[in-house]
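Good morning,

Attaching, inline, the backbone tokens for the sequence recovery test we're adding to the shared suite. The designed sequence is right after.
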């Protein structure tokens, strides 16, 4: 009988269930997309019940396709889109409206008001984050102030808050019939409500945000024997399996890339782009526009921290070209279209659809294409869209080098866009370091599986996980320095033109 670990990877655009064997190889993968809801400009929502339905479907499908039963699953790990915020009724499981997605910008006025006197870094010393629409705390405050009946229910202990991992673990362990209400330290560190040093909810910040503490989940390690409950035998796994791994998606990718040594870096290319550097047990403040966050915590061991550069729009730009402009019919077509031209024709595409995240943190920015002439065609637009991902990564990497004092010698990459050779070569060229893609590219799901497997002894140690990591492909930089610096100066000018759009 095969022994497997199941990972649930709930992302911004889809949900996956991935089954891994003891060597970290994928045995089966099932995936299902969910609806992106845009009620107003700048608002982005998901239906939490649709996400729960998709989760049940992909679990059942993965088990069916692999021809295994739940009893063959040793443990379950969960990873998730991080800052997306859900509030629901404890007794019924009904959400108080749609989830507010991490990309949503409706909380700008709340953030501006909270930082009116002390600025956007008001809470940074405690939580490692600037005031931004990105994080869960302002979203929760908005829900409490704008959704009818929520505050009253929260004060009575009847309304629960959670990020998507909290929501799924609650349902998988019974939901209204006693489901476990937890959040791991990595997701909690993205709320603006958790003290980075104590790893507890900060009472002063909760009072400032006017958030009832009883609606918050219990903060737990990322890998935690014996776990936080068993899956319901009547649920999609059909068996009682411990849920003992939980990581935000970008931290899960760091673990999946086996970046367990201080100074190691990974960059994930998904809906957005997220670069993390392991800083060990040391909390490293950023002076360059990066975030200080929890990387992971394994059981009772001390928490490991990270510097993070978060970019809002990368793969989502390809999706926008496909769905909104219908420039391509599938995401894979963008590389072919971009290869139809030799370069971007002098144009730059700054995809500040939700403002600019790291290292700028400018919610007043909006998307622009600059440098347009009659010469430009759709191939140039496609190529500039891909190049924007590489330029944004260069900005974050420069900031990370400054904050850490460590010059990067190579960069591990993962996510859907790393199969785009044109982008990866341009990425290596514009940052001037080798780019390494691992043999197993599903590193986010793999990190969740590793966290669960370590908790139950399926894998012995982080060292054994490091030994499993293998390079699939390397891109070496080959661009002249004069060309590199000239292109990057053009990008910086383009970014300037995206600013101050929203009053």
């Amino acid at each position: 009988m095969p022994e497997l670990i199941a990972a649930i990877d709930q992302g911004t655009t889809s949900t996956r269930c991935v089954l891994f064997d003891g060597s970290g190889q994928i045995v089966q993968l099932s995936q299902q997309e969910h609806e992106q809801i845009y009620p107003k400009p700048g608002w982005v929502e998901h239906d939490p019940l649709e996400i729960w339905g998709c989760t049940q479907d992909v679990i059942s499908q993965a088990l069916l396709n692999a021809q295994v039963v739940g009893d063959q699953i040793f443990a379950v790990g969960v990873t998730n889109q991080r800052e997306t915020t859900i509030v629901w009724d404890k007794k019924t499981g009904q959400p108080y409206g749609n989830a507010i997605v991490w990309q949503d910008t409706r909380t700008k006025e709340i953030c501006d008001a909270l930082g009116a006197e002390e600025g956007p870094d008001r809470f940074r010393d405690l939580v490692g984050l600037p005031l931004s629409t990105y994080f869960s705390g302002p979203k929760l405050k908005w829900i409490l102030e704008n959704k009818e009946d929520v505050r009253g229910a929260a004060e009575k202990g009847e309304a629960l808050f959670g990020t998507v991992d909290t929501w799924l673990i609650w349902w998988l362990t019974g939901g209204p019939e006693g489901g476990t209400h937890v959040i791991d330290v990595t997701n909690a560190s993205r709320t603006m409500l958790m003290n980075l040093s104590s790893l507890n909810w900060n009472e002063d910040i909760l009072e400032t945000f006017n958030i009832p503490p009883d609606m918050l989940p219990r903060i737990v390690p990322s890998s935690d024997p014996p776990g936080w409950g068993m899956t319901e035998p009547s649920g999609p796994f059909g068996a009682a399996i411990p849920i003992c791994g939980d990581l935000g998606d970008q931290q899960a990718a760091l673990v999946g890339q086996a970046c367990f040594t201080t100074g190691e870096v990974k960059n994930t290319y998904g809906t957005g782009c997220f670069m993390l550097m392991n800083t060990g047990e040391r909390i490293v403040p950023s002076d360059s526009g990066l975030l200080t966050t929890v990387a992971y915590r394994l059981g009772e061991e001390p928490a490991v921290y990270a510097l993070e550069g978060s970019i809002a729009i990368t793969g989502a730009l390809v999706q926008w070209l496909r769905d909104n402009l219908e420039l391509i019919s599938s995401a894979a077509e963008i590389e072919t279209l971009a290869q139809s031209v030799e370069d971007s024709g002098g144009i730059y595409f700054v995809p500040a659809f939700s403002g600019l995240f790291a290292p700028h943190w400018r919610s007043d920015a909006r998307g622009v294409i600059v440098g347009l002439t009659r010469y430009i065609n759709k191939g140039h637009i496609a190529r500039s869209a891909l190049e924007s991902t590489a330029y944004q990564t260069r900005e974050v990497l420069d900031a990370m080098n400054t904050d850490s004092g460590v010059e990067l010698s190579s960069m591990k990459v993962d996510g859907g866009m790393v199969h785009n050779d044109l982008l990866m070569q341009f990425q290596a060229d514009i940052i001037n370091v080798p780019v390494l893609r691992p043999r197993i590219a599903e590193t986010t799901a793999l990190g969740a599986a590793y966290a669960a497997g370590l908790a139950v002894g399926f894998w012995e140690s982080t060292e054994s996980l490091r030994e499993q990591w293998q390079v699939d492909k390397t891109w070496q930089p080959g661009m002249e320095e004069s060309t590199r610096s000239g292109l990057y100066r053009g990008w910086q000018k383009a970014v300037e033109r995206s600013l101050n759009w929203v009053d």
